[in-house]
């Protein structure tokens, strides 16, 4: 098995996609931020009157998706057509669950854009709540769904 | 408990640190990327002759740390004095473990810079190995150690 | 009336444009920087031999247009095909009038790119002349013309 | 009168501030976005349940302040210590009034950071409401207050 | 002869490419970093066990190519389809020779992207080796080959 | 001899400068763009009435210096205190000679900022004149002078 991000000599390169056709592509990524129940209360009450942790993280995730090619060395720049981020409290975690959906019409997929959206939003949640709890953990970041392109559909097994 | 990133009216702001003194500050963050044993072999063999997954991820993490204030809406820009990233294979995971150390002399801490370094490096590992395995998972991202500043020393409990 | 930048639940998202067709799009935006007649003399004399305020502002505006999707959270990244900025002295203001023209072939319009070009150029004019006059005012920033796309042609009424 | 952003030959340069002392500096800038009363209703209702125009603009303005030295060619990069943005509805405009406060401890002032925060937030308001009204106008952008540094205190006259 | 980056009045603008057709485009640029034989030994030994100067420079060049439109004022943003960088030791220089290949399918060429890749990689080589030798020189940066677009094929004469 | 940008294991890191003292630092870098005499005429006439190649390149170089830590992987972000760029025609080359001066008060030197200013300005000159001559060459990029910091003064020998 060879990795496409390296050439025959093992040197990193941004792989040539100029021969690929432009097709509709979709990726969904997910993740979570685990915290104490008290911190989760702060994050969710916050939406009403103390400050909007979730809204801030959502915007940071959307903006982060647009910076993917700046951050990930061998990612192609892509004209992103859609980014949406669902961030929902889960008392059983306890914490916040994140799910990013990204679409494009292009020559490569948007998996990295979706994963970067989730990561950036999760980091922002950490930043906004760290005064209350330094021990939060970010995890469960993975690709949930991918459609379009030559490699076709991928759906992650249930976690 | 109120969150420092919101003012009394609940509006997000970049909190005023101008009255804080410049002190030496350190943060260590950690995380991992879980993959199959075969993918881990690809990642580690790669260092020798097929392409350097770990070296690429390390650079991406270092550069990501410098972009923290661009990515996290309410983070202060900081003159980072040091960034180092250890990325080591762990056959028991199986996968790669990441550990970032960031230092500054400044008015706020560098927790977010260390966490951003780990996240960016983990995303880069995913990007470089995704042709081999789409089901990799990024997790265990947390602050391991923090020193300096008014709130003092924090060390995470053993995982 | 609902706003396209929010979904049904009121959450901000980057709206899906993947079903839109790529068409030629044009936007023209305008604005001004008001200053004293003496400061205007400085700005315009400057072109000849004391330093080029207007040329510097023009370049800043063109470069600013390319950063639009970085600055405006829910803007789509776009392959800009043209940016031009006219900056002309107007003794009756007194001050400088700015007019930016932006074109693309894409799935969304370039209104924000044109408005960002005008704003960035106006800020640069302020920066370069503020040693002479801190009381300058930036105003009159509006969309003058928009063509292309499903919503069709828009032309602002005379000011 | 000569402009500090040009040298003796009239060439643009980033002026040498290395001999200046680091002092506490504050700048306040203001501006507005004028719209119809119906659009203003959309913007303010939005906070409750249809989507948060004002919250999004506030974050964009804070993040924009951090990009000032990237956008304005001759601005010095500065370690910003505080950014806050007040955005309040004004039925008599009708529209939204913006006011940004920026602080640093550094060798140059933060006027441009405050003005850039206001401009970026105003552009974001336009972007989020343009589906409802293309004819909105951005204006009244000016420096309201400046403290610190050799040139001392400046306060704008009442508008 | 007039320069396309200026309009009839001599004002800089980003030239209108919206009427051009999207075609496959290729550019190859080259350059070198001259150093003493001892420094070259450090750079090349480094690959094995002391640190990877060449691998770091290659990544910096690839990432630099993606920043071209941010750096060069009148460059159009382009969806880069491929970037590869060859960096090879040349004992007769002595030093390292760089060669960047960039492809896109777009309305303008990728000469500037290829030249920026070479320049950024060369600067990174200087940065990583400057502790050993401050007197290194970067030179020979030129366009080697260009294909596609209305102006057709260009191949540089042998150096 | 070991290279400071690698740790004992040969891994790239951003070296720890937190123990260094903040001192005044200066760097001067130089380079040139070689072209035919006719192209040089275009570039220099341009200043008067056809468009300002040199002024555009100067601004690009100044802005490029501010992006150094974004472009060069292991460079520390620095609060640049001054950037100036001299660009002068040299009929004996024939071409344009560039010389950048950068100052800071910080914990590391500004050699890379000065070299990046020269490189970015040279690339911009190429971009603006490439319609007239594709065969231009960029070279002679080197550090001319460095002052401040523990390693002291360095002055390049006459070329």
TrEMBL record, chains A, B, C, D, E, F:
NCBIfam families: moaC, PRK09364.1
Residues bound to substrate: 74-76, 112-113
EC assignment: 4.6.1.17
GO molecular function annotation: cyclic pyranopterin monophosphate synthase activity
Catalysed reaction equations from the record: (8S)-3',8-cyclo-7,8-dihydroguanosine 5'-triphosphate = cyclic pyranopterin phosphate + diphosphate
Key words, A-Z: Lyase, Molybdenum cofactor biosynthesis
Protein family: Belongs to the MoaC family.
Residue ranges occupied by any Molybdopterin cofactor biosynthesis C (MoaC) domain in the UniProt entry: 14-149
Chain coiled-coil ranges: none
Keyword flag Heme: no
Protein name: Cyclic pyranopterin monophosphate synthase
InterPro entries, per database record: MoaC, MoaC_bact/euk, MoaC_sf, MoCo_biosynth_MoaA/MoaC, Mopterin_CF_biosynth-C_dom
Quaternary organization: Homohexamer; trimer of dimers.
Organism: Pseudoroseicyclus aestuarii
Active site: 127
SUPFAM superfamilies found in the cross-reference section: Molybdenum cofactor biosynthesis protein C, MoaC (SSF55040)
Top-level EC class as recorded in UniProt: lyase
GO biological process: Mo-molybdopterin cofactor biosynthetic process
Keyword Lyase: yes
Pathway the protein contributes to: Cofactor biosynthesis; molybdopterin biosynthesis
């Amino acid at each position: 098995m060879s990795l496409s991000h390296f050439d025959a000599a093992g040197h990193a390169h941004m792989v040539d996609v100029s021969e690929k056709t432009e097709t509709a592509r979709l990726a969904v990524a997910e993740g979570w931020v685990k915290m104490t129940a008290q911190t989760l209360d702060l994050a969710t009450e916050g939406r009403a009157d103390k400050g909007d942790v979730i809204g801030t993280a959502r915007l940071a995730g959307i903006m982060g998706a647009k910076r993917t090619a700046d951050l990930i060395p061998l990612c192609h720049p892509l004209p992103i057509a859609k980014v949406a981020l669902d961030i929902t409290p889960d008392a059983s975690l306890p914490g916040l669950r994140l799910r990013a959906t990204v679409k494009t019409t292009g020559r490569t997929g948007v998996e990295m854009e979706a994963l970067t959206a989730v990561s950036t939003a999760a980091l922002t949640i950490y930043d906004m709540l760290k005064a209350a709890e330094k021990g939060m953990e970010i995890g469960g970041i993975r690709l949930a769904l991918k459609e379009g392109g030559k490699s076709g559909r991928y759906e992650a097994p249930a976690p």
